[in-house]
Write a structure and sequence with these properties.
heterodimer; A: alpha/beta; 5-stranded mixed beta sheet; globular; B: alpha/beta; Rossmann fold; 8-stranded mixed beta sheet; 24 helices; 10 strands; about 10% strand; elongated; ThiF_NAD_FAD-bd (chain B)
Chain lengths: ~450, ~525
């Protein structure tokens, strides 16, 4: 008899809790129906031996997830569509998404929030519309912009940021932005200034997902060597000794197009324009024929010009799932997050590997310690530039170097603005001594890979 | 028509670069069956519909519930719920199969979707042959009884079966296929097939045509490294009794030998000869003796390879033909692959060298083709039954052939045939994914006994934990497994999407796992077992 009563009591307790939620009106009001959040509740309202040591199961966790938690999704492409779907379905309502691209027909094999009629429209807008229309209560805010169009005040508002980007440069920029938001008091990191960054990447049947706690765990730059270098063919091969069909295509893209300007002066090669690709394809075939090289196809031409990376829905689904799991874990504090790097490969069987990527002591992005630059005083500025771009841990793209000389800020070299580039170009051939730089001098370097300038300490060797 | 084909090529461009036009064709000719349009089920289908599977049929007798529409902890998509605004007011009226079919169709108009509003058990009772028409069947969240029944029907009909289950933060997949052959396994780091240890006649005479000592500097610095290594190997052979450099010491000496061949400037310093540096760098791999891997040897020794009949699938006819080649014209070697890596060289030298390899590969392939023809004739079939293209593809991939065979579910579940060794050895540490497998099996038992899953209702949690413990113990006892399952695991059990496996089975490219995959979302770890 006691047995019968016990379950009765327990059932009533759950009902009371549910009623309380309804009375609070917070999360039962906005279009929720019976059983909608049952699955989520099971995770948040029951303790278990694998939950986070600090986790207190309660009905309030669901409240936070639904009403307060604000997430930023960067990228509304292959990973982004999957992420938005996953996050919205797990109850998160306040989601922003940034994407600077418009929809292309080749996106439709995996970016499932888009339909053929959407081709040409901004990805962020269409993705947000789709989710907002289909998932009651969800409020996705789209931004058809570049990540660089926003500043700290924008990024600061989010609890967690998830990236589904397609470039290492963009990742590094985001990484740098979150690091710049960190505040230190007497050298101690204030944990409330940390915004977790969950980063996913895919390529064909391979992918990875990682959790970054800026200032605490390994950041993007700490593990720069993990990213494979881009394949660029040597110029002499392209110009005079082609052997592969790719060399012929690169020749047309890099040398013949600027010379022939087939579609008008100053009209750049647009990989998305079929007429442009067709022109490159035909010229590449001609060049290949001169050298008895076979294998130039339209598909190869497009692939080389656009640096296309193959992609399928399933890999994106897997990696987005891993990332959203981490968002859920961190947002709910219900489980210990991934620590901190997951690798996935399903070419042969199904393989995952998880490891803890380590912070680099002298990381140029997150170590707070100015980097040393060692050069003899007779070294030319050109050599410093070469080091900044070629060093595996720095891999800068077009660094701009400034120094404080005689109390004034002097730009030593800047590539990205034509007039300044011209003015400062002669400095490249001058030695560090000639430029008036002294031992221990601080050099400030700006680059697309980071939103903040990186400080270097110049050590002049004898 | 042309317009549709072009737009399909554009739409599928990113995936065509992975499995090619022929892979896509296989996908578009396939018809898969999904049993249970649950969250994981619809996610799996979504990832097949998007790349353009030919057709799908959903078998599901359930109605949509409020839970279906709200489901998901972010790792699984329920396409049903994505589109369900209309049904919110009365979520329980709609049949799940129909709803899912309509919404999945929306994702890709090239795909044809069908549904059957019926439970799989009823179909197995009344019309088990219904399942024979499919390229592959996916069973999601099937109770053990249904799973085993279906498994037996599909095993006998040779239809691949993928079992998927999610529970709490655990994901489980089991592939059941009698025999799956793969020609294009696309290995990640394949060694080149250069034959430097035993150059074929045409390669030898091509190497002869080079005179390293006598040539001009501009030719010297543009000579392909393959030629360089071959030339110095000739020198080495004559001094070392025709033995390849074997250990580190000998390889280092060989590298030095090559280094001495670098031209010197007038002032005595060495010239910048990148091709020689390439040769030195490649010594390690270039001198590997040419041999056939044990995997391929095993394939040659299989029964199917020995007994060719009119019913023998093309894969085995081709394997036998290649075996004939190996044992006769090939002199113990597979047909030449025919490709060489890019290397520093002027265009003419490189293309000429490449053509030597290509032409030899074509020659070998046409010899294999003759063997194929005579094998087919011997069983009364025409040579058209296996295309030249397929023969060439097979020869090119001969070193990478793979055959995957899975044990049946009956074998896995049978008390006499359970793979005790795999289970016990994987239980090392008792924290691995094998524990989750045992837990899932125990949960199945629970369902068999109580017609529901443990912990569905909050008020049952405590009692269910002890009931589940009983299931665990009875399972371990029945199988005579002397292992320990920590109480923690009995308390806790979540999803993984996954589906690349289905594409691998249908396109016969890349290698599927054999045969059980478990994913632990808590720790984000996974493991594969052969059960």
């Amino acid at each position: 008899m006691a047995d019968v009563e016990e379950p009765e009591k327990k059932r009533r307790k759950i009902e009371e809790l549910t009623e309380k939620m309804a009375v609070d009106g917070e999360h039962m009001g906005s279009g929720d129906w019976d059983g909608r959040w049952n699955h989520v509740k099971k995770f948040l309202e029951r303790p278990g031996p694998f939950t986070h040591p600090d986790f207190e199961p309660s009905t309030e966790s669901l409240g936070f997830l639904l009403e307060t938690c604000k997430i930023l999704v960067i990228g509304a492409g292959g990973l982004g569509c999957e992420l938005l779907k996953n996050l919205a379905l797990s109850g998160l309502r306040h989601i922003h998404v940034i994407d600077m691209d418009t929809i292309d027909i080749s996106n439709l094999n995996r970016q499932f929030l888009f339909r053929p009629k959407d081709v040409g429209r901004p990805k962020a807008d269409v993705a947000a519309d789709f989710v907002n229309n289909r998932i009651p209560g969800c409020q996705v805010v789209p931004h058809f912009k570049k990540i660089q169009d926003f500043d700290e005040s924008f990024y600061r508002q989010f609890h967690i940021i998830v990236c589904g980007l397609d470039s290492v440069i963009a990742r590094r920029w985001m990484n740098g932005m979150l690091i710049s938001l960190l505040s230190y008091e007497d050298g101690v990191l204030d944990p409330s200034s940390i915004i977790p960054l969950i980063d996913g990447g895919t390529e064909g049947f391979k992918g990875n997902a990682r959790v970054i706690l800026p200032g605490m765990t390994a950041c993007i730059d700490c593990t720069l060597e993990l990213y494979p270098p881009q394949i660029n063919f040597p110029m002499c091969t392209i110009a005079s000794m082609p052997r592969l069909p790719e060399h012929c295509i690169e020749y047309v893209r890099m040398l013949q197009w600027p010379k022939d300007t087939p579609f008008g002066d100053g009209v750049c090669l647009d990989g998305d324009n079929p007429e442009h690709i067709q022109w490159v394809f035909q010229r590449a075939q001609e060049r290949a024929a001169n050298y008895n090289i076979t294998g130039v196809t339209y598909r190869l031409t497009q692939g080389v010009v656009k640096r296309i990376i193959p992609a399928v829905a399933s890999t994106n689904a897997v990696i987005a799932a891993a990332c959203s799991t981490e968002v859920f874990k961190i947002a709910s504090s219900a489980y210990i997050p991934l620590n901190n790097y997951l690798v996935f490969n399903d070419v042969d069987g199904l393989y995952t590997y998880t490891f803890e990527a380590e912070r680099k002591e002298n990381c140029s992005a997150c170590s707070q310690v100015p980097q040393d630059l060692q050069f003899p005083p007779s070294a030319k500025l050109q050599e410093v530039l070469k080091y900044l771009t070629e060093n595996a841990s720095l891999q800068m793209k077009s660094p701009a170097i400034t120094a404080t000389l005689e109390g004034k800020n002097k730009t030593l070299y800047l590539q990205t603005i034509a007039s300044i580039e011209e003015r400062t170009r002669p400095n490249l051939c001058k030695t560090l001594k000639e430029l008036g730089l002294s031992d221990g001098q601080e050099l400030a370097v700006a680059d697309v890979t980071t939103p903040q300038t990186v400080l270097f300490k110049l050590k002049l060797t004898s | 028509m042309a317009a549709t084909k072009a737009s399909k090529e554009q739409k599928y461009d990113r995936q065509l670069r992975l499995w090619g036009d022929h892979g896509q064709e296989a996908l578009e000719n396939a018809h898969v069956c999904l049993i249970n349009a649950s969250a994981s089920g619809t996610e799996i289908l979504k990832n097949l519909v998007l790349p353009g599977i030919g057709a799908f049929t959903i078998v599901d007798g359930h109605k949509v519930s409020g839970e279906d529409v709200g489901n998901n902890i972010g790792r699984v998509s329920n396409v049903t719920s994505l589109c369900y605004t209309i049904v919110i007011s009365n979520p329980c009226l709609h049949n799940r199969a129909q709803a899912a079919t309509e919404l999945l169709q929306e994702l890709n108009s090239d795909v044809s979707g069908n549904f059957v509003e019926e439970s799989p058990d009823k179909l197995l009772d009344n019309d088990p042959e219904f399942f024979h028409r499919f390229s592959l069947v996916i069973g999601v969240q099937l109770p053990e009884g249904t799973c085993l029944r279906l498994g037996s029907v599909l095993w006998n009909a040779n239809v691949p079966f993928l079992v998927c289950r999610t529970y709490g933060l655990t994901g489980y997949m089991r592939l059941v296929v009698k025999e799956h052959t793969v020609v294009e396994s696309h290995p990640d780091n394949a060694l080149e097939d250069l034959r430097l240890d035993q150059p074929f006649a045409e390669l030898k005479s091509h190497i002869q045509s080079y005179d390293l000592e006598g040539m001009e500097k501009k030719d010297h610095i543009h000579t392909p490294w393959i030629i360089i290594v071959a030339k110095y190997l000739e020198k080495w052979f004559s001094d070392h009794n025709f033995q390849l450099p074997k250990n580190y010491k000998e390889k280092e000496a060989f590298r030095q030998l090559i280094r001495q061949g670098i031209l010197t400037k007038e002032n005595g310093t060495p010239e910048d000869e990148e091709n020689f540096e390439e040769a030195i760098k490649n010594v390690n791999t270039a001198l590997n003796p040419t041999k056939i891997s044990s995997i391929v040897e095993d394939i040659f020794n299989e029964e199917q390879c020995n007994d060719i009949t009119a019913q023998t699938p093309a894969f085995w006819v081709l394997a036998r033909a290649v075996r004939e080649f190996v044992q006769n014209e090939g002199g113990g070697n597979l047909p030449l692959r025919g490709s060489i890596p890019d290397m520093i060289a002027d265009s003419e030298k490189f293309i000429n060298l490449q053509n030597v390899y290509r032409e030899k590969a074509m020659q070998d392939a046409s010899v294999v083709s003759k063997h194929v023809e005579s094998l087919l004739q011997s069983v009364g079939k025409t040579s058209e039954s296996i295309s030249e293209q397929d023969i060439k593809l097979f020869c090119k991939n001969a070193a990478f052939l793979r055959v995957v065979r899975c044990r049946s579910l009956a074998e896995e579940y049978g008390a006499e045939t359970v793979n005790k060794d795999e289970i016990t050895s994987s239980m090392d540490g008792a924290d691995g994914e094998m524990v989750l497998y045992l837990m899932l099996r125990s949960v199945d038992r629970f369902y068999q006994q109580h017609s529901r899953y443990p912990g569905v209702y909050d008020y049952q949690v405590e009692e269910d934990i002890s009931r589940l413990k009983l299931c665990v113990h009875s399972l371990l006892q029945e199988y005579g497994l002397n292992v320990n399952v920590k109480d923690d695991y009995i308390h806790e059990l979540y999803v993984w999407p996954h589906v690349q496996l289905v594409i691998k089975i249908i396109t016969r490219q890349f290698v599927p796992f054999n045969n059980t995959f478990i994913y632990n979302a808590m720790s984000q770890t996974s493991a594969t077992f052969q059960l």
